[in-house]
């Protein structure tokens, strides 16, 4: 089995833009985003909102010019070569959205 952590999404504030497209990072299982602006954790609903349908985060106030915005992907990708060869009680079960 192999594992991979996707890179976090990094944006840079321009003092004007409030909406950032994050793609499918959080579009499944009703996940919530984890966002930092200048290494300060942002609070969903207070500092920003996440639109699952549009796959966007929208800040209440545009991040300042040059400030780094980090959207933590929060996903772990697992891949198996032959899961049928694993003994019955030696398999990994992953539940969606948990």
Biggest sheet strand order reads: 2-8-4-5
Total helices: the number is: 0
Beta strand %: 25-35%
SS content category: mainly beta
Average pLDDT across residues?
A: 78
Largest sheet report: 4 strands, antiparallel
Summarize the model shown.
With 98 residues, this protein is mainly β.
Protein architecture, described:
There is one protein chain. With 98 residues, the chain is mainly beta. Helices cover 0% and strands 33% of the residues. It contains no helices and 9 strands. The strands form 3 sheets. Strands 2-8-4-5 form a 4-stranded antiparallel sheet, with no helix packed on it. Strands 3-7-6 form a 3-stranded antiparallel sheet, with no helix packed on it.
Topology, please?
Elements lengths: L1 E3 L4 E4 L6 E3 L12 E4 L2 E2 L6 E4 L4 E4 L8 E5 L4 E3 L19
Antiparallel strand pairs: 1-9, 2-8, 3-7, 4-5, 4-8, 6-7
